[in-house]
Amino acid sequence: MWRWLICGVLGLGLGVGSALAVSGGLFSDAKLVSGRWSTDPTVGASAANPWLRATIARVGLLALTKEETVYFNRDVDEDGAKLVEGCTYALEGEAIPTRWWSITIYGANQMLPINTDGASSIDATRALVAPATTWTGTLSATRPTTPGPWLSSKGGGTFSLTIRLYNPQSVEKAALQALKLPRVKKISCTQTPTSGGAN
User: Fold this and answer.
1) What does the pLDDT read at residue 3?
2) How far is the C-alpha of 97 from the C-alpha of 82, rounded, in Å?
3) Per-10-residue mean pLDDT, the chain, length 199
4) What is the distance between the terminal CA atoms of the chain, rounded to a whole angstrom?
5) Strands across the sheet with 32-34, in order?
6) How far apart are CA 50 and CA 84, in angstroms?
7) Rounded to an integer, what distance in angstroms lies between the CA atom of residue 71 and that of residue 103?
8) Is residue 151 within 8 Å of 137, Cβ to Cβ?
9) Are 109 and 160 in contact (CB under 8 A)?
């Protein structure tokens, strides 16, 4: 009896522990990288493994099918330093072969930063005004004086960005890796960000 009980407790502990570790990001499972952005191409696919499903359930990502939406994430700037509230970043992007896109900021708790700025996301409609094919914006804790879309990091602490590509022209791995996704360049800091790998 004791032997069965001990085995059961150990099995439960290992199962729950590994699920929490994977879904909490302890083990990176990013399989596809485009610049400093990364994604798992099985998000929204029937081939998604149990660990990926646990991650989606835990962080609250309501993933559509990959033909509808592809999700890329990043938590570092162009130099590989962690994105932090105390820094100001320049956003630089261009037209993406997808019907529409949006970029949203998430805090370390995978929730929107708590503030009253009303600037937790930007999208193609506001950023890329025809006939322009490129755009610039700002990611900072205070409202910038420069023109262009603004993402507020106020209350974000150490944060990450998610870009959603709606109805991309192709979901093939080579096409996704070749995408020229927005760049995030550090301009100035009031705190020293730490280095870290892409999300």
Assistant:
1) 60
2) 28
3) 59 46 43 88 58 50 72 96 96 95 95 96 92 94 94 96 94 92 96 61
4) 45
5) 32-34, 37-39, 69-74, 160-168, 98-106, 121-123
6) 31
7) 10
8) yes
9) no
Q: Can you give the pLDDT at residue 198?
A: 46
Supply the DSSP string of the chain, one letter for each residue: -HHHHHHHHHHHHHHHHHHHHHHTTSS----EEETTEEE-TTTTSTT--HHHHHHHHHHT-----TTTEEEEEE-B-TTSBBPBTTEEEEEEEE--SEEEEEEEEE-TTSS----SS--SEEEHHHH--TT-SEEEEEEESS--SSSS-EEE-TT-SB-EEEEEEEEES--SHHHHHT--PPEEEEEEESS-PPB----
Write down the pLDDT at residue 65: 75
What domains are defined for the chain?
2-189 (2.60.120.600)
pLDDT of residue 8: 55
Q: What is the pLDDT of residue 54?
A: 52
Alpha-carbon distance 83 to 77, whole Å?
A: 6
Query: How many C-beta atoms surround the C-beta of residue 199 within 10 A?
Result: 20
Cα separation, 4 vs 1, whole angstroms:
5
